[in-house]
Structures are given as structure tokens and as C-alpha cells.
């Protein structure tokens, strides 16, 4: 496994990561319908272009996932659907904690597997919002790394 910082996102990589995002969202965000996903896709694409720090994780030169960081917060973490449960997400989170001093992450309340994953890695809920960033009725849980 190798973590690589992306300094300039090429169009081909952008499309690959956006497709990886969409596949992941379809599996993990079951509370979203098709219209919701289609509305979020351009927002996700713009977020990938604008993110302060973008990292990919590769195994045998194949991208298995990516993580976006802004300041001390994980803004996005997505692992290829067929590679979930193989340690790629954990490796990215550990890298972020140990090298980037991250302390925060948000998760949809209706995504209990992701919440459990972050809690397992040492995060705890400290705040809840009724709506997501787009004003949709999707509660967001704000998590903070314990003892930070």
C-alpha cells in the first residue's frame, strides 16, 4: 500500500475519483435516491478540484481510494467498493492523524457503518446538525478525535 499526495489533479484522475465516489455513495448512502446522487455529483466534482490536500492510496499501482483534507478535518474519504474492509481507509486515517494533524470528520447520521468505522479509529460525536451542507434533511454528525 502506498499513499500519494496529488498536487495537480488531471482530468482522467478526476473522472476516475468521481466514479469511485459515485459507486461508494450508491453503496453507503442508501438514504439518497437517484436524483439526490445526480445533484451531488457536480458538487463532488467541484470539491475534488478545490480540496486543499488530496491523497490517493494505491495497491499494486491500482487506486483503491482517496481522502481529502482541509485544515485539520477530513472532508472526504472514499474507498473502492470491492476493496472496502481491506485496511485502505484505516491506513489513510492513520496517515492523516500522524502526518497531517487532523482532528475532525463529519459523517451522515444515516450511514452507521461509516460512523462505526470512525468511532473504531478514535473519533467521537460532539455535535449534530439536522441538515447537510446543501440544506437537505440528512442529519450530519460532527466527530472529533478523542484526546485532541
Write structural notes for this entry:
There is one protein chain. This protein has helices at residues 11-28, 34-50, 88-100, 112-120, and strands at 2-6, 53-59, 62-70, 73-79, 104-108, 123-129, 140-145. The protein is an alpha+beta fold and 148 residues long. Helix 3 (88-100) links the parallel strand 4 and strand 5. The radius of gyration is 15 Å and the shape is globular.
Q: Which tags fit this structure?
A:
single chain, alpha+beta, seven-stranded mixed sheet, globular
Q: DSSP helix count?
A: 4
Structural class determined from secondary elements:
alpha+beta
Oligomeric state of the chains?
single chain
What is the distance, rounded to the nearest whole angstrom, between the alpha carbons of the first and last residues?
27 Å
Gyration radius over CA: 15 Å
Biggest sheet statistics = 7 strands, mixed
Overall outline:
globular
| Strand adjacency order, main sheet | 1-2-3-4-5-7-6
The low-confidence parts are none
Q: In percent, how helical is the residue content? A: 25-40%
Average pLDDT taken over every residue: 90
Q: Tell me what portion of residues adopts beta-strand conformation.
A: 25-35%
Total number of β-strand segments?
7
Amino acid at each position: 500500500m502506498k499513499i500519494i499526495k496529488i498536487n495537480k489533479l488531471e482530468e482522467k484522475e478526476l473522472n476516475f475519483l468521481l466514479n469511485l465516489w459515485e459507486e461508494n455513495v450508491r453503496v453507503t448512502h442508501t438514504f439518497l435516491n437517484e436524483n439526490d446522487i445526480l445533484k451531488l455529483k457536480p458538487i463532488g466534482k467541484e470539491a475534488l478540484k478545490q480540496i486543499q490536500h488530496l491523497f490517493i492510496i494505491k495497491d499494486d499501482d491500482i487506486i483503491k481510494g482517496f481522502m481529502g483534507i482541509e485544515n485539520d478535518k477530513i472532508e472526504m474519504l472514499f474507498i473502492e467498493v470491492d476493496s472496502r474492509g481491506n485496511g485502505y481507509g484505516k491506513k489513510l486515517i492513520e496517515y492523516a492523524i500522524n502526518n497531517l494533524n487532523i482532528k475532525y470528520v463529519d459523517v451522515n447520521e444515516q450511514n452507521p457503518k461509516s460512523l462505526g468505522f470512525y468511532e473504531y479509529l478514535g473519533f467521537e460525536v460532539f455535535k449534530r446538525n439536522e441538515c447537510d451542507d446543501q440544506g437537505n434533511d440528512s442529519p450530519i454528525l460532527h466527530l472529533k478525535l478523542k484526546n485532541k
